[in-house]
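User: Structure please.
Assistant: Input sequence and predicted structure:
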Amino acid sequence: MLNLTYEFKLKPTPQQAQEIERILEVCRRVWNYALAERKDWIRSRKSPINACSLFAEYIIPADQPYPNYARQSQALTKAKKDYPELKTVNAQALQQVLKTLETAFVDMKRKGMGFPRFKKARRMRSFVFPQMLKNCVQGIYLKLPQLGRIEYIKSREIPEGFRVKLARIIRKAGGYFVALCLECDVDVPDVPPHGYPIGIDLGLDKFLATSEGELIKRPRFFNSLHRQMKLLQRRLKKKQIGSNNWQKLSKIIARLHETIANTRKDFHFKLAHHLCDQAGMIFVEDLNFQAWAKGMWGKHTLDAGFGQFVTILQWVCWKRGVYFGKVNKDYTSQICPNCNAHTGKKKLSFRVHSCPECGYTIHRDVASALIVRNRGVSEVGRILDVKEVAWGGDLTGTRNGLVKSLRNRKKGGEAWIYPAS
């Protein structure tokens, strides 16, 4: 089963935009009520038996079960009799709100996420229609439940053989968007290792360096508009919260943030395609970008968006048939790519790798990218050996022939060394 998600911009009529806002508001109230119900149940059981809570808590009977998704869905159906406004919103859209809340509570333990929060006005930004008709796409129009036929900008065609499984309506600073989840009954195998390999080293001095010696400068997405953002934030601070001027200025700031995010994503996609044009295998370090973001250079790390870039690069590689792999990150900057000697730690101010054993000199980031590439090729060889693939001797197209040709290949008069697996 193959799933794709395509995002399009909607062009709703004023009546449809008003209906979208009303649905978002009802979904927000359902979220807040369900979250409050769960928090009250948890708080009523957090105090010891022989002590009282320092804060006022609701007294909930001990035999009352935990309000999970199933019980809250049943309660939602009964609540429609007392609150007719709930009947005016698609029932499945409200159920999806409860499912999202259930997932948030599960992720607290499974992924170590934070406690779900209540949503203030205009903080609910999306809702889902989980069941779509087969003929919901009609030219430049989409047929959505409750909203009817709504026009959208058809920036690309939906692939043949795919059907629309669900639709998520999203409100952004730039307007309303729809994310269509497409489904196709086909199994696509993973991309096998093939072609010419390159390694990538990510960093803050240069956004990335490749094993081919290419250095990509790190764009300052946020810093380029930091002065304008700072000025707008100062003006917003002087406005009365909730006033019309406050809302207008908030929309301008939101549009500016969206411009920064779109510019960053556009750069990541173009760079990913540029890398895929050069190789059949791409290897990167298996890094913990969340730890990077908490360090001294957290602001610059988040501005670069390394995690988003790696995710986009993996998707583009799969789409274009390029093998993508992650390798161990340890000591990539402390090993000589020419003789595999351990050169020790280097200060961040040292941007040139100079091996004391063999005298090999190269840019520090390029040397790390070479190590990443060598480890990737070695790891691919190990995987292929485990699968017991029938390889020939030193013939062209076999693994031994590939490693031998790569070892003997030269660029700029310097041999590229690949350790045998």
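The chain has two domains: 2-184, 197-221+253-415.
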